[in-house]
Amino acid sequence: MIAFRDILIFAGLAALAAAVIASLFPAGEGASPVPACSDCAFKLTGGYWIRQYGNYASLYLGTREVARYGWAYRADEGRPLKIGENATCSPAMYLWVFGGVAYVSCDGSSPRFGRDVLGPKLPFVNITTSSDWRSCTYTYRFDANLTERYVVTVDVYDEEGRLVFSGTTTIPGSVSFSIPMAGVYRVHIYAPPLLDEWHTLIARISITDLVRAQVFTSNNTEDLRPSTSLKIFDLTNYWKKGYTSVTVQVNPAGASYTLSAPTGAFADFLLAWEDCHNCDPTNGALYIDEVWRITFTQYIVLTRISSQGGYWHEVYVLDGQAYNLPGRKTLIWTWNKEGPKYNSFTVPWFVTTVWFESPDSTMNARATFIKVC
Amino acid sequence: MWSLAYGLIALAVVAFVVLYAAAHAPNFKTVNLADQLYGAKKWLAEYLPSFPKVDVKSRFRVFVNVVRVVKANATAYDYVAKQWVTFPVYLPVGYRLERAGESVVYQVYLNVTRCRNATLQGGTAAMLYEVELKHSLDPLPWLEVYAAVPRNITQYYSWLYNYYTVSRRSPAVGLALSVDANVGFMELVKVEWALVHNATSGVTMLYVAAPPSALYILVVDYPLKVPLACPQRR
């Protein structure tokens, strides 16, 4: 039966035998053998040195010649050794061999093949811009062929010349900022002495696909039937100018709606719709059958302000969109009939379409709102 | 029991020999210059269409990995609006390219200095391109030059116009999207070329005799394909 003690003894004996055998080798010789290869790189430790002769170069270990090469070059300078010149490195020599020619390097840096034919190579910076439409976040990416680190500053000014964002990064790097409100912005990018550029950013709501709808930026009291049943009033500029509330007149009778400034809105619109092409007289209740407000924040919020009239109404929005998925035309409000009654509805997307419909289909209107950043 | 002891000792001997051999065997790293060179050229080929385009000569002289271009107008047929349109394009006329592998520095400088009509010996007309060529490595025995003759120039420019309407940036002839995408519209004709080295100035000129109908020439240092156009024409 082998006891644990016996195993210990055997292991000790084994170690002793290994030590004895090891001592028989030329211990501590310290020099690594030279591989015979081409198109290769290796490291030699020990007293290796190279001497250049008239038609070949010899690699010596001490006084013993161990290899011959066609010629020897210094890898760092790229110059060949002169005849009779020696090259040595301590503690280690790095040798590259290509086609029988040796390149000697002391610090392990590779020799470079290829002359410089281009001359000056000034730095340049590549600026790429990307944006996220939902949050209206812009990212400026800076890439360059620089060896030093430069700090680049990005300043963003609004239409009034006010600084709305300032950020710095080092190249390569990126700066991100979000645009708070629709408008035209000037972006100043500077990193002296490399860069001093101005860019223009336009963040806005694009209103397209208009059916019997028209966009106004101030009061409109005209009777525009039959071509226009939906008046869209763009209020964004008033909020930008710092108004706390705005009164919008929508028809000849002077019907008006007073709206107070939304907080943190990207854009804001009042929608005023007429449901009938001949019933409401010019001085009567025009363009007030459905009055809605559409406010863009990170999402799109629709709020009902007023409804009236004898016809039934249906208000639809395009909802339920996601990446690569189409939205659904969703009924959110009905008047004078059974159906959903949302006084407020949120579309968690950056684009939507609004429909207003009534029994008088010649007044049905539609508009698509797209946040463009 | 003693056989086990001998076994352990033998094991120690074997382990020692293996470790000693492993530690002292000549070991080296292979360095493949051809692969490095291929990698450098492939990288340049891949990024060529996205390199900055400069139309100012002073900038071309100091930047690296840039394309010198000349602005020109092209006429295309807009299939959507059903009318002829004129839009700006860039003609690539020079390159300063550099990419370094671990041990290889690949640099190439190409610049069209002149482009003129010439008559070949057989009496055929040709467009003679004079291209300045500097190369960091020794002359290029593998250099190939093709002339790109458009199969249907209207179709090609209409394709470029599409690209222009989408990106709102002037496309470069031969470089829009990718070099191969442009080549798809072209008949590539192998052309005669000559390298002439002037020992006094140290400049090598590449002379290319292309058919007059060629839109540009394609200098191929495989896998790098570089389109060069005539600065004065079209």
Explain this structure.
- Chain A is mainly beta.
- In chain A, the strands form six sheets. In chain A, strands 12-11-14-15-27-26-23-24 form an eight-stranded antiparallel beta sheet, with no helix packed on it.
- The termini of chain A are far apart.
- Chain A folds into three domains: 66 residues, no CATH class; 78 residues, Immunoglobulin-like (Sandwich), CATH 2.60.40.3080; 161 residues, no CATH class.
- With 234 residues, chain B is of the alpha+beta class.
- Chain B has one domain.
- In chain B, the strands form two sheets. Chain B has a seven-stranded mixed beta sheet with strand order 2-3-4-5-6-10-9. In chain B, strands 8-7-11-12 form a four-stranded antiparallel beta sheet.
- The mean pLDDT of chain B is 88.
- The interface between A and B is large, with 41 and 42 residues.
Series of H and E elements of chain B: HEHEHEEEEEHHEEEEE
Annotation field: number of helices of chain B? 5
Task: Count up the helices of chain A.
Answer: 2
Rg of chain A, alpha carbons? 40 Å
Number of strands of chain B: 12
**What is the mean predicted local confidence, pLDDT of chain B?**
88
Attribute tags:
heterodimer, A: 373 residues, mainly beta, Immunoglobulin-like, 3 domains, eight-stranded antiparallel β-sheet, six-stranded mixed β-sheet, 2 helices, 48% strand, elongated, B: 234 residues, alpha+beta, seven-stranded mixed β-sheet, four-stranded antiparallel β-sheet, 12 strands
Task: Give the SSE map.
The complex is a heterodimer of chains A (373) and B (234).
Chain A: H1 4-24, E1 40-45, E2 48-52, E3 57-61, E4 64-69, E5 72-74, E6 86-88, E7 92-98, E8 101-105, E9 125-132, E10 137-144, E11 151-157, E12 163-170, E13 173-178, E14 183-191, E15 195-211, E16 213-216, E17 230-234, H2 236-240, E18 245-249, E19 256-260, E20 267-273, E21 290-296, E22 300-307, E23 313-319, E24 328-335, E25 344-347, E26 351-357, E27 365-372
Parallel strand pairs in A: 5-8, 16-17
Antiparallel strand pairs in A: 1-7, 2-3, 2-6, 3-4, 7-8, 9-10, 10-13, 11-12, 11-14, 14-15, 15-27, 17-20, 18-19, 20-21, 21-22, 22-25, 23-24, 23-26, 26-27
Chain B: H1 2-24, E1 29-30, H2 33-47, E2 53-54, H3 57-62, E3 66-78, E4 83-100, E5 105-119, E6 125-135, E7 144-150, H4 153-167, H5 179-183, E8 186-190, E9 192-198, E10 203-210, E11 216-221, E12 224-229
Parallel strand pairs in B: 2-3
Antiparallel strand pairs in B: 3-4, 4-5, 5-6, 6-10, 7-8, 7-11, 9-10, 11-12
